[in-house]
Structure formats: structure tokens, C-alpha cells
Specification:
mainly alpha
């Protein structure tokens, strides 16, 4: 398997592991270093840029999960969709993801 595909598969798996996200956030926010430094330090074959991108993807994935939970809670409470959208106050693409809508990129569903 291509190394790039394996790295992407590993990242996708890690995004669903709350402990991995917790470690990335701790490295990033509490460690006081660039997001990828701690990840790279644990294995010298890794690069800092890979660690930085990985950490950002993990944290952003966790934030999106929390947004989706909040949106679902608001829906369950009967909050109108337009009020939810206004409360999110985010760019349309991120709002669509938080609302659980299917996005089209280059004519393909994502």
C-alpha cells in the first residue's frame, strides 16, 4: 500500500479515537511547542509538518463532532434550523458539516 494512503488511513482511524485526540491536544496546548514537535519526537522517522497537520486534523475533527452534538441537541429541543445556523455564525461550508449535510466537491459527494 502506498505510504500516503496508509498515513491517511491511520489518521482517519485516529480521528475516531478520543484518547488520541486528547494526546494531540495535550501535546499542542499544554506542551508549549509546535503541534507536530511532540509527535515527531516520539519517532524520528516522522516529520514535524506531518505531526502538525495530523494534530490540526485531529483537533478540528473533535471540534466538528462537538458542533454536531450541539446541533443535534438544539434540534431535539425544537430550535428552528435558521436559529441554529445563525447561532453557529460560521462559514457556510463548516455550517453544512455541522448540520450533517452532504457536501459536493468537484461533483463528488463527501
Amino acid at each position: 500500500m502506498n505510504n500516503d494512503y496508509q498515513m491517511l488511513d491511520d489518521l482517519m482511524q485516529d480521528m475516531h479515537d478520543r484518547n488520541t485526540v486528547r494526546i494531540a491536544m495535550t501535546d499542542w496546548l499544554i506542551g508549549g511547542h509546535a503541534p507536530g514537535d511532540a509527535w515527531q519526537a516520539r519517532d524520528p522517522r516522522r516529520t514535524t509538518i506531518e505531526g502538525s497537520l495530523r494534530s490540526e486534523a485531529l483537533v478540528l475533527g473533535a471540534v466538528l463532532d462537538l458542533l454536531r452534538e450541539d446541533v443535534q441537541e438544539a434540534r431535539d429541543d425544537g430550535v428552528p434550523e435558521d436559529a441554529i445556523i445563525a447561532a453557529l455564525d460560521l462559514p457556510a461550508e463548516i455550517t453544512s458539516l455541522a448540520l450533517g449535510e452532504v457536501l459536493q466537491f468537484n461533483g463528488e459527494e463527501n
